[in-house]
Write a structure and sequence with these properties.
Layout lengths: L5 H13 L4 E3 L1 H7 L9 E5 L3 H14 L5 H9 L3 E4 L6 E4 L8 H7 L1 E3 L2 E3 L2 H11 L2 H21 L1
Length: 156
Amino acid sequence: MAAFDYRQAVEIRDALARHQVRYLFIGKSGAIILGFPDTTQDAVLFVDRSPGNGRALVAALRELGFALTDTEAADVERGKDFVQLKNGPFDLDLVFAPDGIERFEDAWERRVEVEGFPVCHLDDIIAGKAATNRVKDRESLPRLRSFREYWMKRVT
């Protein structure tokens, strides 16, 4: 699968906006939208866990071209903690309970808007990477923290 790119981000943003889905870009895809100079293979979204939002998300995903099974659609609608989709035009991870972030509402209040993209604050992205404690996340943390220093100077 090709690396996450701006075109995919736009497709996601526009489809989810049409269906009024509440979500935030998170993980490395969120950091990239904030300007982090790196690559990732998939888009990762932190999604508000509510039945109406889940139903709207299923409709948006189908519009994007994801061939959701009944089980996947039910998992999305009920807000299963983690749903990985590889049956669409690009790889997409949906996270309803990310490590390192207590509540969607808290992250929503701290969000950053970039060209209409709702993105988790870089501090939340870093907290999530630190909390997962996966090798690949531990390896990217020094670069993310260094980028944070640069980014904070730009946004303040």
